[in-house]
Specification:
The complex is a heterodimer of chains A (340) and B (331).
Chain A lengths: L14 H36 L1 H26 L7 H14 L5 H25 L4 H19 L5 E2 L13 E2 L2 E2 H19 L1 H11 L1 H6 L4 H27 L1 E2 L7 H11 L11 H23 L9 H29 L1
Antiparallel strand pairs in A: 1-4, 2-3
Chain B lengths: L21 H27 L6 H27 L7 H17 L4 H25 L4 H19 L5 E2 L7 H4 L1 E2 L2 E2 H19 L1 H11 L1 H6 L4 H27 L1 E2 L8 H11 L11 H20 L4 H19 L4
Antiparallel strand pairs in B: 1-4, 2-3
Helix pairs in contact in B: 1-12, 2-7, 2-8, 2-10, 2-11, 2-12, 3-4, 3-5, 3-10, 4-5, 4-10, 7-8, 8-10, 11-12, 12-13
The chains are: A mainly alpha (340), B mainly alpha (331).
Chain lengths: 340, 331
């Protein structure tokens, strides 16, 4: 976000290089944690946990959160933030449901386009009118939720079950749910775009130092506009996926997704100040946060201890806390190494 | 503007916004934009809404309903003035309300219940403050932790159950009246006056704005940045705790699932409508109060005139954006 938060200490040398290195370290660390949790789950809960079915359903469930987090990663890397994604997902879901009689492709595309349109509105206010992304997307969070409710006549909306729209819930390819494959593909493309295309470098440049990027002749506004449209489109797609998988969109759909997405991005090590980030690490972050819930479900199934589902949020918050403190530690240790 | 018109025969039309006049026009809208919207809404309601100009409607409905958001918005304005943000206020309100009710239902006195509620809120604020001031965690992330975990904690306090109670003293903040006014308006007024005094006459008030203006140079100039931030987040959390007490008092029961839900967004919106930039360095107490009243009056006006809630939400979003647009800084 733009509350130009000063670095922890004023004495920092080459902060971006150090942050990038810290990010690598953190990426490796959280991947390790993810693997350890998977091994723990497999050992403790046996074959039920390790079956293809459980992993498939976790992957399919995570797809929508992962899509939202992917767009959020790009926005955050430019130093912005997109709070509207939860409402946009609801809008995307409603629009997709309304077009669902035309089949999967048309329905999904309608959701994506609706989301991209909201992204364009965000982009207009952020780049043309130079308003702060945090508050612009807060306003669209309100307005788009209202629009989604209005379109759905203030009640849940169901998808057409006669077309192939709801096939997404059952389609499999190579033993994996198609929704998960789409997400994996998009993450690989996202990482590739970030690492190897001019656009990716420009995103990082804008987030690293917007003024310098502008002076270098980069089209800063175009880059920023692109990430908001991308975020909106992906949120719309997430809504369409939600609708296709569950067959309906409830009035409260997507509430709080923006904050889960931000949490996943932070767990992945992308700095909220912008300029440094990794797409794949965000994917690992999403997987990690969702796997925690899967483990809780299984632990409850063991009937040794019962963990109330109220604990889920507490555990998620505690997890975020641990990651944030680790991040601070890594950055500080590196600082000491550089200064000594 | 009129003093620039030298010839008395100049036509009394709206002046063309020339280069040197534009900034002053902008400063005017920046300063009085929220107030202007409030006046327009007030006049419209006075003409169009039946029984709007009655004590019952103005004080018991509009002002009383604006009080919770208004109180939290004052703490939020303080946090935002330091360049931070506090997303945890809604969850903190839920924790405080839930714990206060639990202590009361457990058979303790109302004072002890108040103390427990405000005490736990203070702890939450210190938690945020330590993360931000000591560990240098970004405010949005640091307060996101309690935002997520806090509601779960509030629900765990009683396993998600509602707690009903009937204790006039404990519910004073929600239902009590002093001098014919609902207590929450009085609380709001006191908090606003206190905060205005602190901002105007204490070094702490200067520090808050200095930290938000330029943190590094403040630190070099000897401003205790860490302590200032700690205090700011503690204040915000305690005010949120107070609102938690108001909410459970009004309902005569504590509901961890709903107390303070969306409070952070309303408070941030009120501060934004007041024209306080989210980048920090500026603070206006009276503006924040006007912002909260404007926002609530807007919501109530739309509802009173039969606009469905979802359309009202869209209009609210548009008004926030419009308020931001006219108040945007000249940079």
């Amino acid at each position: 976000m733009t509350t130009a938060d000063a670095p922890p200490t004023p004495r920092r040398f080459a902060p971006r290089a150090r942050a990038a290195a810290a990010l690598q370290q953190q990426g490796a660390l959280i991947t390790l944690v993810l693997v350890l949790l998977l091994v723990f789950g497999a050992l403790r809960y046996g074959s039920d946990f390790a079956t293809g079915f459980n992993l498939q359903s976790v992957l399919a469930d995570d797809a929508k959160y992962a899509l939202v987090a992917l767009g959020m990663t790009f926005v955050i890397m430019t130093g912005g933030i997109d709070l509207s994604v939860g409402s946009v997902a609801a809008l995307g879901g409603v629009v997709a449901a309304q077009q669902s009689s035309h089949g999967f492709f048309v329905g999904t595309m309608a959701g994506v386009l609706a989301g991209a349109a909201v992204g364009l509105v965000n982009a207009f206010f952020v780049t043309r009118l130079r308003l702060q992304p945090f508050i612009v997307t807060l306003a669209t969070l309100l307005a788009v939720r209202g629009l989604a409710l209005h379109l759905a006549d203030v009640k849940g909306i169901s998808a057409d079950s006669s077309s192939n729209f709801q096939g997404l819930a059952s389609w499999m390819l190579l033993g994996l749910p198609v929704s998960a494959l789409v997400v994996i593909l998009l993450y690989l493309i996202g990482e590739g775009v970030l690492r190897w295309t001019p656009f990716g470098r420009q995103v990082l440049a804008v987030g690293g130092n917007e003024d310098a990027a502008r002076l270098m002749g980069l089209r800063v506004d175009a880059v920023k506009a692109a990430v908001y449209v991308l975020s909106g489109a992906l949120a719309g797609l997430a809504g369409a996926f939600l609708c296709a998988q569950t067959g309906s969109v409830a009035t409260g759909a997507g509430k709080g997704w923006e904050l889960s997405a931000i949490a996943a991005v932070v767990v992945g090590g992308t700095l909220l100040t912008g300029g440094v980030g990794s797409v794949l690490a965000t994917g690992v972050g999403v997987g990690l946060l969702q796997l925690l819930f899967n483990l809780i479900t299984f632990e409850n199934g063991e009937h040794v201890i019962t963990i109330s589902h109220y604990w889920e949020d507490v555990i998620r918050g505690a997890f975020l806390l641990v990651v944030v403190l680790l991040q601070v530690r890594i950055v500080r240790r590196r600082q000491r190494r550089v200064t000594s | 503007m009129s003093d620039e018109v030298l010839t008395p025969s100049a036509p009394p039309v709206a002046p063309v916004p020339t280069a040197h006049r534009r900034p002053s026009w902008q400063r005017l809208t920046q300063r009085y934009g929220a107030l202007a919207v409030l006046v327009v809404l007030f006049v419209y309601n006075a003409v169009q809404t039946p029984f709007f100009l009655t004590f019952q409607s103005l004080v018991n409905n509009q002002l009383r309903q604006a009080a919770p958001v208004g109180i939290v918005a004052l703490g939020m304005a303080l946090v935002i003035a330091t360049g931070g943000i506090d997303l945890s206020v809604g969850s903190v309100a839920a924790i405080a309300g839930q714990l206060g009710a639990l202590v009361l239902v457990d058979g303790s006195s109302a004072y002890l219940a108040w103390g427990a509620a405000l005490g736990v809120a203070l702890l939450c604020g210190l938690f945020n403050g330590v993360l931000i001031a000591r560990y240098g965690v970004q405010p949005i992330i640091a307060t996101l932790i309690l935002f997520i975990a806090g509601r779960g904690i509030a629900q765990l306090i009683t396993g998600g159950n509602l707690q009903d109670f009937d204790d006039p003293l404990f519910q004073f903040f929600g239902l009590g009246r002093t001098a014919g006014l609902p207590a929450q308006i009085g609380v709001w007024f006191l908090v606003a006056v206190g905060m205005a005094a602190v901002m105007r006459w204490t070094t702490f008030g200067r520090y808050v704005v200095a930290v938000g203006g330029n943190e590094t140079s403040s630190r070099l100039a000897g401003v205790p940045v860490a302590r200032t931030k700690m205090l700011v987040y503690a204040t915000s959390a305690v005010l949120a705790g107070l609102v938690g007490l108001i909410a459970v008092g009004v309902n005569s029961s504590s509901d961890a699932n709903n107390v303070g839900l969306g409070l952070e967004l309303d408070a941030i919106a009120a501060v934004a409508v007041a024209g306080v930039p989210l980048t920090g360095g500026r603070m206006t107490v009276i503006g924040t109060v006007i912002g909260a009243i404007t926002l609530k009056l807007l919501q109530n006006t739309l509802i009173a005139h039969g606009i469905p809630l979802e359309i009202a939400q869209m209009i609210e979003g548009a008004v926030i954006l419009a308020a931001l647009y006219v108040q945007r800084s000249e940079r």
